[in-house]
């Protein structure tokens, strides 16, 4: 039985199936994504979505859907599904689905009378192309299949309407056609592994709606262009393979290519394998010699903080040490450019945020545990450079206080931490001055620097950093520890922020903590009691008057609610690390229960992956990016930590 399997009763319930979707990617930033019913529910979904560098830095929807119609004795049974005004779905092809599974690749089984048809979707790992294999499993009379492509050729953040600028021409190619609707876009090649008749019948399919965009208060209605349809007979036991992409294929090789790609897939037969497969989907190789981690799907690109936080989990935790090195080696160029005071024009966005160098040191620290010799050979000097860069106050918005050794930042006019939502042009959750996680990371970096100098045999520098870290340790407790027994979230001049937030967990979870053991236990207990939920760690305690457990769908309100109550799965990484540090093996029973709750999410939202955030009260609905690198990565890292305690 498939680990990710959905039967007829679940599929035909649109209230269920429209909110579960499948995602497949390559390492070039392209992807295939739709609901398990086959109906696209957001403007970001489609059969072929890909970057178009010639136009901009965004992704673009090229092929929205590919509707199939089974024809027997002149009767037509359309397997597609689209939403129109007023809860109207037409056609309602989902009613023919008997089973959907996604263990290796997405497989849908349709039954239309005596016809049983399977549909397997595969996204190429080699290029920007999606492949679909249809198998006629059962048929008692002659059968024909008609295929109708719905084209968009648009930016994923925008919608399209019928217009006279679209180029409706097409070119005949081997077993198919090619077309390009607008200047600047690549040619779309649509081909089959066997001869297909194409009937040119151009028209606009008008008024298609995207349910989840509509519910989120976003734009949600568009027109899609249909150039015509392909048609061919199919016999029982036969297979038809369709390919759509920006490269012309040798159609006689489509069957071999399909089989070759399937063999490369790791079956999603467990929670770990789902997370591992999902982690691979964030790898991004825009060109040879460069590698990054995408922050999430469907809309995020490369973000520096997300990359450094996700890097250990997406690589080291799944045995992909070489990928860590490739991604870090790419990032180092941009890190050193910024430290040299030069403008950065690389793909790592937000690289100048004040905590970025601290997260880079943390990521390298995790690598040092796996490959100590390689770390000292390749990266130890970089860590020391970053520490000196901060000590010398060269980071524009991170200053070392000469009196107490702590780092301070200015965050009133723009967000400076991972809590980076913006409301009316300013931080929705302003955090400024001494931030608790910044200074936990800073103390950890200084102690790590001590270790490096000790290994290198530089006792003078080791002693200097030791003195500085001792000052930071003493200052940390006096500045952040409050009378309630947890840590202030930030201290800005005379203002100490009493908000009980998860950022204090890093003062416990990091390799080097500035806290005494009894203080660590108190913080973990506060987090367990007030912040732990079924789907992550709350961003704010329910006892706070600002607490909002449900992520608002109102565009204005959601920026405020974002970090004032919803739960974030990625914070389970530092929470579990901190909890096991305090409670050792006796803490494994609670941590196991946490993982069981998160495993339940494998069948929700983006199946086989983890979303960006969740409502922190029942029923714990997912929101934001439905496959989020930090969420997946930190769960993988947490599982690795649990294994070490076992």
Polypeptide structure, described:
- The model has no long low-confidence stretch (mean pLDDT 95).
- The strands form 10 sheets. Strands 1-9-10-11-12-19-16-15-14 form a 9-stranded antiparallel sheet.
- The two termini are 29 Å apart.
- The protein is α+β, with helices and mostly antiparallel strands and 646 residues long.
- The chain is built from 18 helices and 36 strands.
- It is 32% helix and 27% strand.
- A hairpin with a 2-residue loop joins β10 and β11.
Show the helix and strand layout:
Blueprint: E1 5-7, H1 8-12, H2 14-17, E2 20-25, E3 31-35, E4 46-51, E5 59-72, E6 75-78, E7 81-84, E8 88-92, E9 97-101, E10 107-112, E11 115-123, E12 129-138, E13 143-155, E14 171-173, E15 176-179, E16 188-192, E17 197-209, H3 211-215, E18 221-234, E19 239-245, H4 254-263, H5 271-280, E20 283-284, E21 292-293, E22 296-297, H6 304-314, H7 321-339, H8 356-370, H9 372-378, H10 380-391, E23 399-400, E24 407-408, E25 422-423, E26 426-427, E27 434-435, H11 436-456, H12 459-480, E28 490-492, E29 495-496, H13 506-509, H14 517-530, E30 532-533, E31 536-538, H15 555-561, E32 567-568, H16 572-583, H17 588-599, E33 605-606, E34 613-614, E35 622-623, E36 627-628, H18 629-645
Parallel strand pairs: 2-33
Antiparallel strand pairs: 1-9, 2-3, 3-4, 4-5, 5-6, 5-13, 7-8, 9-10, 10-11, 11-12, 12-19, 13-18, 14-15, 15-16, 16-19, 17-18, 20-21, 22-36, 23-24, 25-26, 27-28, 28-29, 30-31, 31-32, 34-35
